[in-house]
Write a structure and sequence with these properties.
This protein is α+β, with helices and mostly antiparallel strands and 358 residues long. Helix content is 38%, strand content 15%. It is globular and about 55 Å long.
């Protein structure tokens, strides 16, 4: 079947299929449904690198025991405006959703809240959880540490992960202002794409084994390391993420973090962090929404460059989601391949869920 004849995927059908596949791997209905909601929403934003294509790998980890399908998280310490949670190697998106709910509840009482998680793994897109907080009329922060793949200014070895960080703020509409970025110069997937296509890359993306910036991606990831975005600025932000997600939570730090896609039985022990700031505790919500509206209008009214368009942070994602909900999701081939593999692993027929995976 060609791309021109393949039907667009309806988000609800995809969610039902992914939920069933995760239940087949041993997850509870609650954890599977929460996780499916996280990943499918991410796909509707067009962030396919962190959407449903990740489920198969997580379920393979569940089958081999790296991820404990039946595990439930535990609050190991807490106060009025904070908590530390041990994920116990359970399903990261579901545990993160419940952690965000706790952050929102505590922020309602104290004005703001920090939640740190240890003993976790791949939780998907950081922006999902920041936006989940913003949907409760709070300013949300979300971040995660990952295994080292990035060097630091003046170095050549891999020291830090790409350590994503995201924020979202409410606007009084169904669209938040949000940003989700890695602290590396570019996502590794772009380096791999250039490698597969035989293209050079900008010399700001990667260093070779001697720490010298290179335009040749052919030896990555066996050799070399990614560069932080904007030099010392991205490096500093990556350290901040490490502090809040791992140093403070008790999760593995830097070189002790195990990649969730590694061929090992050792758990990842990644850390996550969420911060919720209750806007209504500090000023009337109507006033905040009006100020957000004024800020957004001033940004949008700026003079565009020749041929340019000015977007608010998150506006492109919201446009894509609106189209996906109306017309269905147009999936990249790599996502379809992963979903077909998930169907094979779980013994499910996608057609039973009205899915055309090609």
């Amino acid at each position: 079947m060609t791309e021109s004849t393949r039907q667009n995927i309806q988000p609800d059908d995809l969610k039902n299929f992914c939920t069933a596949a995760m239940v087949k791997a041993g997850l509870s209905q609650e954890d599977a449904a929460l996780s499916a909601h996280v990943f499918v929403t991410t796909d509707t934003w067009g962030t396919f690198t962190h959407g449903t294509r990740q489920i198969r790998g997580l379920m393979q980890n569940a089958r081999r025991g790296r991820l404990v399908a039946t595990a439930k998280e535990k609050i190991v310490a807490d106060g009025p405006s904070w908590a530390i949670i041990d994920a116990c190697d359970g399903m990261p998106p579901a545990i993160s959703c419940r952690a965000v709910e706790l952050a929102v509840a505590k922020a309602r009482q104290s004005g703001m809240c920090y939640i740190g998680i240890r003993g976790s793994s791949h939780y998907g897109a950081a922006g999902f959880y920041a936006n989940m907080i913003a949907e409760n009329d709070m300013i949300g922060l979300s971040m995660c540490n990952v295994e080292p793949c990035m060097t630091v200014p003046g170095g050549k070895s891999r020291v830090l992960g790409t350590n994503p960080i995201a924020y979202a703020a409410p606007t009084g509409t169904d669209r938040t202002v949000m940003l989700d970025i890695a602290t590396s110069a570019v996502a590794a997937t772009k380096i791999f794409a250039a490698k597969n296509e035989g293209r050079d890359i900008p010399d700001t993306w990667l260093v070779d084994e001697d720490g010298v910036p290179t335009t040749d991606p052919t030896e990555f990831p066996e050799k070399g390391a990614q560069l932080p975005m904007a030099g010392h600025k991205g490096y500093g932000l990556a350290v901040l993420v490490e502090l809040l997600t791992a140093t403070l939570s008790g999760a593995a730090m830097m070189g002790s973090v195990q990649s969730w896609v590694a061929d090992t039985d050792e758990p990842s022990n990644q850390g996550h962090a969420f911060v919720a700031i209750d806007v209504g505790a500090m000023m009337p919500l109507e006033e905040f929404h009006a100020r957000m509206d004024a800020m957004c209008k001033e940004i949008k009214s700026a003079s565009p460059a020749k041929g340019g368009t000015i977007f608010l942070p998150g506006e492109i994602e919201w446009n894509k989601r609106e189209q996906a909900l109306a017309e269905g999701i147009v999936m990249p081939e790599d996502v379809l391949i992963s979903l077909r593999g998930l169907a094979e692993d779980s013994g499910l027929d996608p057609a039973d869920f009205n899915l055309d995976l090609g």
